[in-house]
Automatic annotation (TrEMBL), chains A, B:
PROSITE patterns in alphabetical order: FAD_PCMH
Flavoprotein found in the keyword field: yes
Pfam families per UniProt: FAD-oxidase_C (PF02913), FAD_binding_4 (PF01565)
Keyword Protein biosynthesis: no
Matches recorded under SUPFAM superfamilies: FAD-binding/transporter-associated domain-like, FAD-linked oxidases, C-terminal domain
The family this protein is said to belong to: Belongs to the FAD-binding oxidoreductase/transferase type 4 family.
PANTHER family recorded: ALKYLDIHYDROXYACETONEPHOSPHATE SYNTHASE, PEROXISOMAL
Name of the protein in question: FAD-binding oxidoreductase
């Protein structure tokens, strides 16, 4: 992955004529090409790792797996939020970890955590580096040294149980690698978040990632049977059965723990037979309200779609629809006979709510382009536009008011700043009782775009908190959402999180400055 | 509920001629009528509640809601395991709480917990009193006073969101009361554990209860959207949305916490429209192996049954089948068109695994009698037979060996004790990756039946632990399973549980002697 942009250079694309025209007419932006930046010109903080400590780390891992070189450290500056990209593009000194280390297995991770606890060295676990909430920033806090632990070398499928349909994957396995390893057995995980191409199994678990097929296969946390987690006080395996009544579910403590309570080194996940075929649907609704009513009904339907995504009027228009209203896309994965029956039943739900079954072309196009949005964001930044997303989840009853209030907050703050935005939203993860809401914001860049975005996001986040919606449905907390965690979990919840932290990480070296309020 | 037997006297039944004959021929037991016991003859420990403390409790709750009377305390001696029933029938002094208190709301519960923390008074939360693991025993430990908090007065549905399909029920609402309140809105919770008639919403949450319709509607923990929990350090509400990525899922800490971390005072649950109709199926399999292979396939099926239960050869025979093999029963709840299609699809799965579709009579009979087993146990005890159950869950791949090893352990220990048993088992909760295993044991009563059962159960439980199965799928931990919790969760897990306990209940007054290793 590029250090200063999403993904790999070969996949970058220029803005389409339509988008350039939209930027001009709707936002008053004259697209201008970006001044080229390259790794050669970046300036990193110097490594503060002492020679003694370097030798100690090398004794644990071997010299080849401890790096203080700029060419390595530049790839571990943090994640890929718009704030991150703005900072990388700024030409300022970049805060880098003092070293990056590459353990091969859980024993090496445990030795590292014991050493770092003893020496009071901050430790940042790093998977694919796709965080959009500052989750892997090498925050120094009060530590004189901060090292990043890459899970890159832990790449194996260590067990496959074809009877129970579970696979044990090491933390560093990426989305495509998992699918490739499983495909040779006719199996699939079915977890396709936007970060799919780069993100890792350990990261999916540590952040409660949710993929585009969550309606069909569940969120990543639903897929986890058991996990191996290395903490400074020892290695633990949680999860002895699919379900248990033996007390609190400790898997659910480490899921979403974002490297603050331990480092997840392997995960046993539920897998399923590769689907025989996919049925596509595009539905049109006169407005978002009727579309979300249909989505509520579909969410409760036995055999509901595998993928479900409903764009609001603004997103539908920006995506090129000329008919007004809202477009929804859906896929149904399974056997031929079943997917047709399910799609037919879903069509009935849709039409009962005033929707229309349209050509499935938009669903196919959505699938074809579904991992492209982060590349588009880079192109927009290049063109002088600010583009970023934020998300939440709430109940079906509260959905309309949460959406309206967050939209207004974003429009209000950015308009006041002299940069009136386009705010688009969609539903892309559904539950019987509620759904996620995902917002995309595009506007002209102000003088200080970081402050511009932070101010807008703060207003949106405060609106979520006030309305009882959750701080994040699948982006996680990291550094950016930490100031709101106390509102999210309350005083007792915050006390409980801190108690877990103290028990598992007594020296408090694990991923400082993230998650724990 | 009777103090010394399951349920209500009107529902008791004599043993059938078939069962009496089975006891004689298979176990060498000559059924003899039980000597009548009654509340008048029971002797309870005297209340040690001081006058000052009584006045303090009355000041919080009102005098009418604090009781030290034997006629009240006798109903709070503990749960309803066979060990409990043996102790009640023994004629010995019964250990009773020093007082029973009946708070009306979460503020009163909070005041109680603050007072008891300050005064170092042990507190046992009590819902329906249906625990079979000693979960509500008034354990004194090092405390001079132990009081039981009944949730009986907290009986309201405080909110209903018909759009999101969630209902907020106070902790003391029982299974039938919940269904009745929801039915008037055309809704249902769909949670039918064996304890349904008496157990409470708070208890379901605190013990991770699982109902007979778990294949269709999920376990109780799956149904929980949010919870209000009163802890000594404050009141917390966990759960802001169906799903969230805002750190560890704190609902999953309080679910299964068995009153050791806080008292759950209300739960917002997912509900669903009352099903239009039910389709019944009975399937016959030549053996348990083919039946469980079919159940694995059914568990992964879209539109799987609502109830799924597969009896092994022994249970099938005891239930009166003359054909050998294994009988499975299933129900499908939903709309007429859908349940027929789902049942038809399931029949295909069953026949592909060598099963036969039989008359649905056994499924209807199972449904009719599904809450009767605990009454039968009392009749067996009356007749001089020892009858008890235990359960676990494991992966599909491990199921056969876990079942065989636990069965052998039970048969081995009880045969060695001179009381060879009948051991029956069934699968009644399924997941894509594994299932529960439920064992019923009947044998002649030895001189000291408590030691007889404890020895057998210990052997079975050690087998579970050795094989990586879970300590309990839905009975919870309580006092009886506490010695095995360290094996279940490991050293790090135990440290984590203790840290949670210290943070939330610093005076350690909540439900002592249960769950926390």
């Amino acid at each position: 992955m590029s250090w200063d942009a999403w993904g790999i250079p070969e996949n970058r694309r220029a803005l389409s004529v339509e988008v350039e025209s939209l930027l001009r007419t709707a936002l008053g932006i004259s697209p201008h090409p970006r001044a080229d930046s390259s790794q050669n010109s970046v300036r990193l903080t110097r490594s503060r790792l002492s020679v003694e400590r370097r030798h100690a780390l090398e004794a644990i891992l071997g010299a080849a797996h401890v790096s203080t070189e700029d060419a390595v450290r530049v790839h571990f500056l943090g994640g890929k939020s718009t704030l991150d990209l703005l900072a990388r593009r700024s030409g300022t000194l970049q805060f880098a970890p003092d070293a990056v280390v590459f353990p091969a297995n859980e024993e090496e991770v445990h030795a590292l955590l014991r050493y770092c606890s003893d020496e009071s060295i901050a430790v940042v676990p790093f998977g694919g580096g796709t965080s959009v909430v500052g989750g892997v920033d090498p925050v120094r806090e009060w530590f004189d040294t901060v090292i990043t632990i890459s899970t890159r070398r832990m790449k194996a499928m260590t067990a496959l149980d074809e009877v129970s349909r579970t696979a044990t994957l090491q933390a560093g396995v990426t989305g495509p690698e998992a699918e490739q390893m499983l495909a040779s057995h006719g199996l699939s995980l079915g977890h396709y978040p936007q970060s799919f191409a780069f993100a890792s199994i350990g990261g999916f678990a540590a952040t409660r990632s949710s993929g585009q097929a969550s309606a069909g296969y569940g969120r990543f946390d639903d897929m986890v049977e058991s996990m191996t987690v290395v903490t400074p006080i020892g290695i633990t395996v949680c999860g002895r059965a699919s379900a248990s009544a033996a007390g609190p579910d400790l898997r659910q403590v480490f899921l979403g723990s974002e490297g603050t309570l331990g480092i997840i080194t392997s995960v046993t996940v539920r897998v399923h037979p590769m689907p025989e075929c996919t049925e596509y649907r595009s539905w049109w609704f006169p407005d978002f309200v009727s579309g979300s009513a249909a989505f509520r009904d579909l969410a409760a339907m036995t055999g509901r779609p595998t993928v479900m995504r409903l764009s609001d009027e603004a997103e539908t228009a920006v995506n090129g629809s000329k008919d007004g209203g809202c477009i929804a896309v859906a896929t149904f994965e399974g056997t031929r006979a079943q997917v047709e029956a399910r799609a037919h039943m879903a069509d009935g739900v849709v039409t009962a709510r005033g929707g229309d079954v349209r050509s499935p072309e938009s669903a196919r196009r959505w699938e074809h382009e579904r991992f492209d949005a982060p590349y588009l964001r880079d192109a927009l930044l290049d063109a002088g536009a600010l583009a970023e997303t934020l998300e939440t989840a709430t109940s079906w009853a509260a959905l309309a008011s949460v959406r309206a209030t967050i939209s207004s907050a974003l429009v209000g703050v950015l308009t006041e700043a002299g940069t009136p935005p386009i705010v688009m939203s969609h539903i892309s993860h559904v539950y019987p009782t509620g759904a996620s809401l995902y917002f995309t914001v595009v506007c002209a860049t102000a003088e200080d775009p970081s402050t511009q975005w932070r101010t807008a996001k703060d207003a949106a986040t405060r609106a979520m908190m006030d309305l009882g919606a959750t701080l994040t449905h699948h982006h996680a907390v990291g550094r950016d959402h930490l100031p709101y965690m106390k509102s999210e979990v309350g005083t007792v919840g915050a006390t409980l999180l801190r108690a877990m932290k103290v028990a598992l990480d007594p020296a408090s070296v694990l991923n400082p400055g993230k998650l724990i309020p």
